[in-house]
Design a protein that fits this description.
Layout lengths: L10 E5 L2 E4 H12 L3 H4 L2 H23 L15 H18 L5 E13 L8 H11 L6 H11 L15 E2 L12 H10 L5 E4 L3 E14 L3 H22 L2 H10 L5 H21 L1 H12 L3 E2 L4 H8 L8 E5 L2 E4 H10 L10 H15 L3 H5 L4 H21 L8 H10 L9 H30 L3 E2 L10
Antiparallel strand pairs: 1-2, 1-10, 3-4, 3-6, 5-6, 7-8, 8-9
Helix pairs in contact: 1-3, 1-4, 3-16, 4-16, 8-9, 8-10
Length: about 475
């Protein structure tokens, strides 16, 4: 991992059997927050992360000393293929987030017209089909489209903005766009680039088109959005100046801002929130990008068929999905399940395995950065981190199982303001489970504190500076 500032070998915590170095802290902070890590690195946050890493190591050492890794439950606490894949994914995430500002996202701006469709009323399909033909006419100008939408659209806000929707990253797993599922939106708009396409959502009919779509570095997100907000502020102001008294307020309130200063301030806040969300989800977004780039297509998205693959009762040549004409068959799935040690998993777990492990792994292996992530000191560090996490689970699993007495449950019910006679068995069981979880967490924290004291854990806070990693 490339560092800056103080040496990565600088010790930030020590105990009788080891230490946490600055490089360890950098990895964890960058893994979580990417280029924003330093801005979020208060001394308190740094101390918390260092302590968590130190306790993870101390507990792992204790588990090793107790020879818990020889327990059958520890079979995955080694350099298995699945653990290597997880370490590779963590290292890949670290690399992606470390250079997040250069990460390229595709931003799309859409424009739409909406007609409401009331149940029992005559269909408005002929009406909106007529609109579609007019809006898709070759000679129509953008300004004429904006005016037409302002006059005909029945969406309370966007009609005053020329029908333009805020720029979207369609690979960033947004919710349905005005009720249209994203996968449907992408596939339909792709068939007629730049043309208005009809979507029938039952209670409303919509014409929607792609105005523009392009790849930009994440660092330029704010500038890209600012162009949209300026355009829609101008349109809202124009329509407000020509609106009658009843509509004037609606037109004025449609825009995010009333002047340039307010616009820039609001845009900065929106861009920052969107950027943070994208950085948080970079690996998943990259997988979605690869789905498009590699033309991923399901052939058999059927968990019942996948279960037969697990049971080896289906034809090995059965095609499950394709990537650019390459067929991924039942035999490939059997091979991967065996390689990752997942061949004994229950059939009802296959949905999560396919969508959470198999498909992302197949796609990511087409990214050179992911392939590169299977080597180097950071990869080894994440392998070790995963092993230590497994050892921690084994250590805490052998702690005494807590119990909840009737008196404790009754006292908790009183604190919650619950009347015992009004509680059914399910509610009481949920309260008991909550208390058990609390006691379990307290037992873990107590064990950690005891081990920290026994092994002389010390956080070297004088080496920490705010906003410096």
């Amino acid at each position: 991992m490339q560092g800056c500032g103080p040496s990565g070998s600088q010790e930030l915590a020590t105990w009788d059997q080891g230490s946490i170095q600055r490089a360890d802290l950098r990895r964890i902070m960058l893994l979580e927050s990417g280029p924003d890590a330093a801005n979020l690195a208060s001394i308190e946050v740094q101390s918390q992360k260092i302590r968590q890493l130190a306790l993870l190591n101390i507990v792992a050492e204790q588990a090793k000393a107790a020879k818990l890794e020889t327990n059958p439950a520890a079979k995955e606490a080694g350099n298995t293929a699945l653990q290597n894949l997880k370490a590779q994914q963590l290292n890949y995430t670290l690399k992606l987030k470390s250079q997040a500002d250069d990460f390229t996202i595709t931003m799309t701006e859409l424009q739409f017209l909406q007609l409401n469709q009331n149940p029992g009323s005559p269909s408005r399909l002929p009406e909106i089909e007529d609109y579609r033909l007019k809006l898709n006419a070759e000679e129509i100008k953008d300004s004429e489209v904006e005016d037409f939408i302002q006059q005909k659209s029945e969406h309370g806000r966007y009609r005053w903005l020329g029908g333009y929707i805020e720029p979207l990253c369609l690979n960033c797993n947004p919710p349905p766009i005005l009720g249209v599922p994203v996968h449907l939106l992408k596939s339909r708009l792709k068939t007629e680039p730049g043309k208005f396409v009809l979507f029938d959502l039952g209670n409303k009919l919509m014409l929607m088109r792609t105005v523009k779509s392009g790849a930009i570095p994440l660092a330029e997100l704010g500038d890209y959005q600012l162009d949209y907000f300026r355009k829609t502020m101008r349109l809202a102001g124009h329509y407000a100046s020509h609106a009658d008294k009843a509509d004037k307020a609606a037109a004025e309130n449609a825009s995010m801002a009333k002047d340039e200063a307010q616009l820039e301030q609001s845009n900065e806040q929106i861009a920052r929130r969107m950027r943070e969300e994208i950085i948080k989800n970079l690996p998943r977004i990259r997988v979605e990008q690869l789905r498009d780039e590699l033309e991923f297509e399901w052939v058999l998205k059927d968990e019942a068929v996948w279960a037969k693959v697990l049971e080896k009762t289906t034809d090995p040549k059965t095609v499950l999905f394709t990537i650019k004409n390459r067929k991924y068959e039942a035999a490939d799935l059997q091979k991967d399940l065996k390689a990752y040690g997942l061949q004994s998993e229950p059939s009802n777990a296959l949905g999560n395995i396919m969508n959470g492990i198999i498909v992302p792994a197949v796609l990511l292996h087409h990214d050179p950065l992911f392939v590169e992530s299977q080597k180097g000191s950071d990869f080894s560090w994440f392998q070790d981190l995963l092993t230590r996490q497994e050892l921690n689970q084994l250590w805490f699993a052998q702690l005494e199982t807590p119990s909840v007495t009737a008196a404790e449950l009754q006292e908790f019910e009183k604190k919650q303001g619950a009347v015992a006679k009004n509680l059914n068995a399910e509610a009481r069981s949920q309260m008991k489970q909550y208390l058990l979880q609390m006691k379990r967490q307290q037992a873990i924290q107590s064990s950690q504190e005891q081990l920290a004291q026994t092994h002389g854990l010390k956080i070297i806070t004088e080496s920490l500076k705010p906003n410096e990693l």
